[in-house]
Amino acid sequence: MDVIQHKNASWGRAHERNTFKHQMMSVLFLLFCPLCVLVANVIMCEYQGSILSFLQATANGSIYRSLTAYDFQFDQSALTAYTTWVLFQAALFQYLPGKDSLGQQTPGGNILPYRTNGLQAWFVTHIVFGVLCWMGVVDAAIVPKLWTGLIYVTNMAGVALSIFVFFKAYIAPSYVRDRKFSGSMVYDFQMGIEHNPRIGETFDLKLFTIGRVGMMSWTIIDISNAAYQYQKFGSVSLSIICVSLLHAVYVVDFFVYEDWYLRTIDIAHDHFGFYLAWGATAWMPVMYTLQAQYLGQHQTDPSMAYVAFTFAAGLIGYYIFRTSNNHKDLVRSTDGRCTIWGAAPKFIRAKYTTSDGKLHESILLCSGWWGWSRHANYVGDLILSFAMCALVGTTSGIVWFYGVYMGILLIHRSYRCDKRCRDKYGKQWDEYIRTVPYRFVPGIW
Predict the structure, then answer these.
(1) Is residue 34 part of a domain?
(2) What residues does 348 pair with on adjacent strands?
(3) Fewer CB near the terminus (10 Å): N or C of the chain?
(4) Same structural domain, 124 and 253
(5) CA nearest to 426, candidates 328, 352, 332, 346
(6) For the chain, first and last CA: distance in Å?
(7) Residue 396 in contact with residue 294, Cβ under 8 Å?
(8) Running DSSP on this structure, what letter comes out for residue 235?
(9) 260 and 307 share a domain?
(10) Given 260, 284, 299, which residue is the final one in a domain?
(11) What pLDDT digit, counting tens, does each position of 284-342 carry?
């Protein structure tokens, strides 16, 4: 069996996870995350988005009656709608013309081809949805009306996909040398074995699941909730319009720069297991769109000045996120022969070795946003995330979940990134940290 099991690997998992503690943590993760999605819907529907009310109900025992009375049942209409959605996205992913792109070199030394046609697919998806709604074939508010059934279906689909890729890694791996085994089957199921499992030569399950099943659904869910708000209240609020616009900016950016996304941590470093498979299938569509879900059911009335300020803050966050990523990509694509903020960029040339023994070189940028912060793109992402939540104009805890979650995720990812880069680049990473000492905010952190 030709398997990569480095103790100090540059990609994916760097250590064995076969201790009892790690296995129990994986089991808890596998149980807690689906429960969290179900509970979020209960809080939204039964407690008007109030986490405090939910906790009070839990304390006095009435939560049991709410949960047992809640109808998490199989819904044939939801299954049909979701299956149609996934098959339609799969057809666009496979057959729609697009740019031929190459991914970053994998741990096993493979450079994989992709067809990045996400932007075209986004436009086709929304045009088709709009036409079907206009013709009366589909109710524009179909998503919130089938929401409980869709949550059930997406959870089952995410678990089924996770099981499929787990056994595929043993029976029919796409790239043998890109597998990694931790020593714990539970942990391997959670975090994945294969790096880029594919069906055939080109259908990449990781990119499809994250991009088309997950990201593509954001704006459709938003539009459908806005339609539901209109049907319920007779008008569409400024808050849901601005929330939907910021979501759309983020999603369209993802597809405009889909080629760049191939070099990010999700595609270039993480293996594909429950964490990404179920996460993109169930967690992302449900937990990342809580603001639109809330506004679909509850109209809020923040002032025009408040909405304008918060929306502008979100756009500023996006600008930092996008330009910082563009700076890094520009410097690496030109080998440093460019300008950042009107000056020649400062950078460190760092070397690393892949599992095939070959020596490679990378650039660690120390100019522009990256001269201020080692994770400047995360700073912009966090500003944008909290603006999305603040636009709702309410203190109901559930709408703030996305911002808090992204804060925890990106802070954790920053430490994980630093550790991986230290393992990968060694002393050159230490030199980079001395040059750019602040993780997030200059002078503070």
Answers:
(1) no
(2) 364
(3) N
(4) yes
(5) 352
(6) 45
(7) yes
(8) S
(9) no
(10) 299
(11) 999 999 999 999 999 888 899 999 999 999 999 999 999 999 998 889 888 888 999 98
Please say whether the beta carbons of 179 and 110 come within 8 A. Answer: no
Tens digit of each residue's pLDDT (9 = 90 or more) over 265-291: 888 888 999 999 999 999 999 999 999
Mean pLDDT over 80-106 rounds to: 94
**Residues 165 and 312 placed together within one structural domain of the fold:** no
Same structural domain, 291 and 309: no
- Between CA 319 and CA 233 the distance in angstroms is 34
Average pLDDT for 365-370:
90
Comparing 252 with 73, which gets the higher pLDDT? 252
Judge whether residue 73 has pLDDT over 90. no
pLDDT in tens, 98-118: 999 998 888 788 889 999 999
Last residue of a domain, one of 282, 299, 316: 299
Number of domains in the chain: 2
- Closest by CA position to 289, among listed 322, 319, 251: 251
Residue recorded with tokens 């080998």? 335
Burial (CB < 10 A; 0-12, 13-18, 19+), residue 364, is buried
Q: Are residues 223 and 139 in the same domain?
A: yes
The residue range of the domain holding 388 is 302-445
Residue with token string 């994980």: 416
Buried b (16+ CB within 10 A) or exposed e, 269-299: bbbbbbbbbbbbbbbbbbbbbbbbbbbbbbb
User: Max alpha carbon distance in the chain (Å)?
Assistant: 65
pLDDT of residue 69: 56
Could you tell me if residue 119 is inside a domain?
Answer: yes
> For residue 44, is it within any domain?
no
Would you say residue 276 lies in a domain? yes
Do 268 and 209 share a structural domain? yes
Residue pair 383/28 in contact (Cβ under 8 Å)? The answer is no
Q: How far is CA 351 from CA 347, 361, 418, in A?
A: 13, 4, 16
Tens digit of each residue's pLDDT (9 = 90 or more) over 118-174: 999 999 999 999 999 999 999 999 999 999 999 999 999 999 999 999 999 999 999
Give the Cα separation of 336 and 189 in Å (integer): 40
**More confident: 377 or 105:** 377
Which of 300, 133, 296 is closest to 229 using CA atoms? Answer: 296
The token duo for 364 is 């660690």
Q: Are residues 95 and 165 in the same domain?
A: yes
